[in-house]
C-alpha cells in the first residue's frame, strides 16, 4: 500500500478510532515527523520537536491532530515506585 503524502489536520471530538477516509474501525499506527523537516530555519532550537502523525493501517491516510513531542536523553530513565514515593534511578 503506498503511503499518502498528504497530512490532513483533524480535530478529535469524543474519540478518534475510525479513519475518516475509509472507515477502518480499529485505530491508527503512529509516526513522528520532525517539525520543520527539510526547512532551513535561522532560529535554532536546543530541542527537537516532532509531530505525532496518525496513519490508517488500511488505506494509509495520514492525520495531524496537533500532538507534539520532544525526546531527550534525560527523559529516558527508570522510575521506581514504592507506595506513595517515586524515585529516579
Structure commentary:
With 89 residues, the chain is an all-beta fold. It has one domain (7-88). It contains no helices and six strands. The strands form two sheets. It has a four-stranded mixed beta sheet, with no helix packed on it. Strands 5-6 form a two-stranded antiparallel ribbon.
Average pLDDT figure? 80
User: Which range does the strand content fall in?
Assistant: 35-45%
Percent helix, as a range, is under 10%
Rg over C-alpha atoms, rounded to the nearest angstrom:
17 Å
Q: Quaternary state, please?
A: single chain
Quantity of strands, as a count: 6
| Structural class determined from secondary elements | mainly beta
Amino acid at each position: 500500500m503506498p503511503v499518502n503524502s498528504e497530512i490532513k489536520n483533524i480535530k478529535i471530538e469524543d474519540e478518534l478510532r475510525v479513519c475518516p477516509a475509509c472507515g477502518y474501525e480499529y485505530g491508527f499506527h503512529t509516526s513522528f515527523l520532525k517539525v520543520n523537516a527539510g526547512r532551513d530555519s535561522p532560529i535554532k532550537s536546543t530541542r527537537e520537536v516532532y509531530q505525532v502523525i496518525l496513519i490508517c493501517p488500511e488505506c494509509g491516510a495520514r492525520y495531524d491532530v496537533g500532538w507534539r513531542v520532544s525526546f531527550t536523553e534525560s527523559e529516558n530513565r527508570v522510575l521506581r515506585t514504592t507506595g506513595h514515593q517515586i524515585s529516579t534511578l
